[in-house]
Amino acid sequence: MTKSYVVRYVGGPLDGRVDTLPDLPDEPRSTVTHVHLHEGPKIVHHYDLCYAVEYGCEYRLRADADAE
Hints:
single chain, mainly beta, 0% helix
């Protein structure tokens, strides 16, 4: 029996999204970029890979450096 690999997203427009992959990737991407296109300007969000005790890993919305 193989166990699927679950990836969760925390924060931003992908908050709560869960992707299920058939196996653990050899090298999970350290950053995922999500580009939101709509009638307004293009909005880009970056999610960084983090370890989560409950799920193994999750992608968390990167804090905006310009907000500080």
